[in-house]
Write a structure and sequence with these properties.
Blueprint: E1 2-6, E2 24-27, E3 33-34, H1 35-42, E4 49-55, E5 58-60, E6 65-66, E7 71-76, H2 104-109, H3 114-122
Parallel strand pairs: 1-7
Antiparallel strand pairs: 1-2, 3-6, 4-5, 4-7
Length: 123
């Protein structure tokens, strides 16, 4: 099974319409395949996805391969996340060289406070 967590306007593709419930779809996987294959199978229009895709907590692309037991996080095109400061997309699902919150590279860039975020957005 693959656990697909849907956020924002993509929540409507989950079984429960209750806004207080988790929007998780469990999918029996018959791989091999990619995020794009799974998204099509769920009936989610590709154009509604942004670049905000994650597999097992790692930034991914539509071409990233998925396997049984994976956890996907899918965000819509209208939800921009701050992770872009720290990660770059990599279809092999290996964000080598990308700074991660809490590592020494982030500490040299600021603590993530609103003050340091303001400085980053100004540059």
């Amino acid at each position: 099974m693959i656990s697909v967590h849907l956020y924002g306007k993509l929540r409507r593709f989950a079984a429960s319409a209750d806004p207080t419930s988790e929007s998780v779809v469990e999918v029996a996987w018959e791989g091999p395949g990619t995020i794009a294959d799974l998204v099509k199978r769920l009936g989610i229009p590709i154009e509604e996805l942004g670049s905000n895709l994650f597999v097992n907590g790692r930034y991914a692309t539509l071409e990233t391969h998925v396997d049984d037991g994976d956890r996907l996080g899918l965000f819509p095109d209208d939800m921009q996340l701050l992770y872009k400061w720290y990660f770059s997309p990599n279809s092999s699902n290996d964000a080598e060289g990308a700074s991660r919150p809490g590592d020494s590279r982030e500490a040299s860039q600021g603590s993530g406070t609103s003050e340091s975020m303001s400085k980053r957005s100004e540059s």
